[in-house]
Amino acid sequence: SSTPCAQLTKSVDDPSKVPPAMSQTRGSVAMVTSGVTRKTSSYAALSSSSTMLAKMFADQDNWEDFDNSTFETVWLRTRKASLFRSFLNEFIKKNVFVNTANGWPAEATKVEEAVRSLALEIRSGSRTSNPPSWIFVACSETLEPQEVLDEVAKQYPSTRCIHCITSCQGVTTDTGFKTRVDSTGVYRAISLLTVNDPLGAYATIGMPSPDTPSGWTQFEQAMDVAYLRLRESALEIMRDSVNDGKAVPGPEPLAEHLCIWLTGLPGNEEKSLECLYEWGHQRFNRTIPVIGGTGADATIGGKWRAYCRAVDGNDYIFGQEHGQGVVVTLVAASVKVFPCFMHPFTPITECTAKVVSCGSTEEKDPNETTGRVIHTLRVTDGNEVGAGTLYHKWCEDMIQKKLMPTPTVAEGPGAFSPAVLAASTACPLGVAVARDGDDAYDYRMMHPSGIYWYKDQEQKQESAYLKNFASVETGKTDVVLFKARRGDLLHRLSKLKEQLVIQIDQASGGSSLESVALSPDALRARVSGVLMVYCAGCMMAISSGKDGAEQMRRLTVTLSNCFAGRPFMAYHPFGEQGFFPSKQVNGHSNLMFSALVFSKDPAFEVDETRSFAEILSQVITMYDDAEQAVLRLLLVKGENADFSLLSHITRAGMITPELLKSITPCAGRPIPFALSSAQMFHLMARKFPLKAREYNAVSKWFKDFCEDFINAAPLQLLAQSNCLEYSTLQLAVLMAVKIDSKGLVASNHFQEVMEKVWSATPDSDEAIQLLLTDAGGSNSGKQVLLTPMVRHYSNLASYVVLVALQFWTSHNNPSSAILWNLILLWSMSNLFQTLASPTTGYYSWVTMLDDVVLVFSHAVIFERVLMGGEVPRDLDALTMIIHFGNLMKGLIVHPKMGPLIIMVLTMMGDITQFLTLMVFFVTCFYCSLNALFRGIPGVYVGEKWQSPTTLLVNAIWGPQVLWVTEHEDTGRTLFLSEVFGLNDSSAIDTMGAIIVALTVFCIPIMLLNLLIAIMASTYAELSSDVDAEYKRSFASCVLVARELVSLPMPFSLPQDMARTAWKVARFVRSCRAEIEGPLERSSDPDAKLKEQLAVGQIVSNWEAQCSIEKFKGMVTIEQVERMRTQGDGLQDRIQVLYSALLNLTERQDKMENNLSQAIQSSGSPSGKHDAILATTADANRRFSSSPKATKRT
């Protein structure tokens, strides 16, 4: 009942009653069902494997001690934040997402049917069965609010925050702009956006507009209640215990990540923003970003509504008969959210004026300094002009003749002009936001809604005032005329993407190499979904005309490109609210686009004052029990964890390879952790061939990490970090054989250590110190005579004596039982030396089998000679071949002969594979010829002339293929005899010739050429890889040689037998061992601290090296497109600056002319006149050269 499929079934009472419009969704449900079935089976296998783990962590004792005892030994203390961020990223990527569903189904007649269809569509695309944390609904004003709330709540009973707003004519989502108009012209549209964020907190509340002092107080109290409810559902690490139990909220981490989505009704936007600004500063000492859009309707008839089902369980409905109000959702997401706010217009800076008088009505009130009605504007020459008159003149002169309707008489206080609204969409007014910061030369737009005569000037028609849908301030606001073409309303949306890219890059703190602008995939990986508003005026402008549907389709595509294909909802309001970072203020505007982007980046970090286990457990506990057990085991044991259990949850999709990649640099022993991870994915690639390419790529990443990590480490840091301790060396060499990770073993530092171990001292730590001092083994404090090199070559020389002894014995004294007994003991010593050697890949199973055969053969020879019999010559010959194979194996470490031996051995492996294939073909043709010539003898006629065919076959191939049957008959028992009328002898000869021809083609021609091609390909590959393979073989031999006893064969036999017994006992003990806690490591805290600091420095070097490598990447199309977009923005700013300079020059010339006229009219002498002009020009030059003046300009 907890699966997504069960919930889908519950949401539909009777599947047979599902409307036909939902038939396509059924397929999606089926796919979800099959996916859940597969995941359930994988989970069952995992659960059965990790029952013991679940029991181990049931009491939580080991987990509670994790922070104090385990973390310092398993993970780097300096990478605690990175480790936490890695697990948080992993959870967020899989569990934080946004879904949308849009459109009124064709067959739906009720809100219930439409909502059920949309909910089913969302559930079919959902990745988890968890209920949404927040639901946003945009719909047409024709739907009954209470019915919408009830039906949405019925589909999502566990979601307590439902936020609703009416949209103009329809809603645009990633599936397109959708609405339905019936025969009576009634619009029906509804769209759902769900945010799944298990670690986030959301609180929706409704309240009356803060138009009065009492309303302001109620507004703040409602915000306090909403925040306290938000705080209850937030993670403990986001709450400050100081604020527990308080009635009024205070500053804490939760408030630092808070933003607000606001939906109000036309007319009360500025008051609501002002109240939210004051509330944020009073409670948290910061400006809380506010994003949103005002309610709208399809006909601009005042039928807009805003309503919600709030966090307190009550329903709030505003609009029409319910009065004015505001609906607010406090968003404290677990991911970073980015507010974007932009417009698509271009400024005409020569059309600039300052507001002299404004208010809420046409009546001028000196005490009223703000309002949406502009009475008078002061132009650059100092004259004051009626705002409506000036705006109309600007449009006539700069935009288009007769575009703007002439002023009329207002019909009432709330009147607006539809004609002015439509015309001014292309030429609104803008108010400068800031002259510096991120919003430099950016503006908030105002949509003029009417140009009206004053009542006392209706007959004179000398001055008109201007009404807008956004307010201005007397004496402070400069308004600028803007313009835009219809296409700009679409194409300029690239600025929205640029805003988003800049914010994400700045928030992540990464370099340009990690910018999300590098590719669409990079942006898509960092974005979950978007809730935005696209102004209704802009929407109606682009949807008008014959190609309106195509333009709306382009709008969908453009927005989808902006957000890298992630789900988004864009409803169409009559006013937009957004956040301006440079001024840290929120603003209300028109004809703009505002968006709230949910990212994939975690919104909070590690709190160093809390226990790490306490912090991390809030994320780990969100997983199921079996997953928790495996992840906690990984945290407690690190590289010693059971990676087979980890592979189960990775295969089931419960964690991704990116988690292991991100925590590898945080491990206290990064190389063993990376090698274990690489082996896990290597085995998964062999076990699951369909995903072999993906798993091999991940395995290669870990192999490359090990190589790059060593290459990035100076020897001094390697010595301090203990990264090349003996257990790591052995694991690296073994993994080089098992998973082909030769890059680490072939690295310079690794080989330098191996060389010192080989020639100076068996101790790897001492070898590193010798490399640091570069003084040789004699300066190490003790004399090492029997180095691994001496031990290896002494045993190799001993083996040469064995070969010579056997050769002499078999030729000169084959009946000597004593000598054969000595040879047997010698070969037994060689066998036990092989068995006792550490597992490094130097000895393969073939080598061990050869040694067993060698001992067996010598035992048989000794037994025969002891009984007085002859020496079996075959066994004697076989053992000689094995002897020289072992000698060649021992010489593989020679710098010159080793690479050649490796190439020979590799080619012998190719020949083995070829012989396997050849045996198949030989068996095939043998069975065929045996069936054809069953009981019939053949006669060789290769050298007898029968016809010119004999000569042709001899010339092409040879006489050995010419055979005929010996007997004569007249029967016709063969199929060929019946078909072609031949006797059986001729039919057999014909069929035999065909089979022989196929044999010649397949075996001598095709297979032999295949062998040549294989060996040529192998040689080409080995010629480039033989150096790495030689270094791997050398390292394997070194680790084997360092374990050899002091005496060579056969004197080492007793010690080798003891070593073999100890190795077997240790293997049995390890098989019986149960899962324990963390391994005991160095107990010296100072030594451990130095080791961790050194590892941390190497990781930092590795990260810097990776960044440098990224600089070498190719420039992408996305980078070029981003440069073009930035160039457009820069061009706009240069145009503003250029226009300002032209205006300044014009004003300067005008001022000089006025001054000249004034001087001439006052009768001043010409000399004085010239002096004044010169002084004025000089002052202007000094003013222009001033930095502050230039900045103001």
Please explain how this structure is put together.
With 1193 residues, this protein is an alpha+beta fold. Helices cover 53% and strands 14% of the residues. The chain contains 42 helices and 30 strands. The longest helix is centred in the last third of the chain and has 58 residues, at 984-1041. It starts with a helix and ends with a helix. Mean pLDDT is 83; it is low at 1-61, 1074-1080 and 1182-1193.
Query: Which stretches are low in confidence, meaning pLDDT under 50 for 5 or more residues running?
Result: 1-61, 1074-1080, 1182-1193
Number of helices: 42
Radius of gyration: 43 Å
The largest β sheet comes out as: 8 strands, antiparallel
Distance between the termini: 68 Å
Helix percent reads 40-55%
State the shape.
Answer: elongated
Provide the β-strand percentage band: 5-15%
Number of strands: 30
Q: Briefly note the structural class of the backbone.
A: alpha+beta
Report the average pLDDT across residues. 83
